[in-house]
Amino acid sequence: MAETHEDTPKETVHKEEEEEDQSFEELGVDARLLRALIKKRIEKPTPIQRVAIPLILEGKDVVARAKTGSGKTLAYLLPLLQKLFTANSDRKKLAPNAFVLVPTRELSQQVYAEVKSLVELCRVQLKVVQLNSNMLANDLRAALAGPPDILISTPACVAKCLSCGVLQAASINASLETLVLDEADLLLSYGYENDIKALTPHVPRSCQCLLMSATSSADVDKLKKLILHNPFILTLPEVGNHKDEVIPKNVQQFWISCPASDKLLYILAVLKLGLVQKKVLIFTNTIDMSFRLKLFLEKFGIRSAVLNPELPQNSRLHILEEFNAGLFDYLIATDLSQSKEKDEVPKESIVGSRKSRKHAKIKLDSEFGVVRGIDFKNVYTVINFEMPQSVAGYVHRIGRTGRAYNSGASVSLVSTDEMDTLEEIRSFVGDDENKGTNSIAEFPLLTKNAVESLRYRAEDVAKSVTRIAVRESRAQDLRNEILNSEKLKAHFETNPKDLDLLKHDKILSKNAPPPHLRDVPEYLLDKPTKEAREMVKLARDAMGNNNRRKGSKRKLRKEGDPLKAIYATASSKRPHKARKTGGSDSLNSSDRHKHKKNKGI
Ligand SMILES: Nc1ncnc2c1ncn2[C@@H]1O[C@H](COP(=O)(O)OP(=O)(O)OP(=O)(O)O)[C@@H](O)[C@H]1O
Question: What ipTM was assigned to the predicted interfaces of this complex?
Answer without folding.
Answer: 0.98
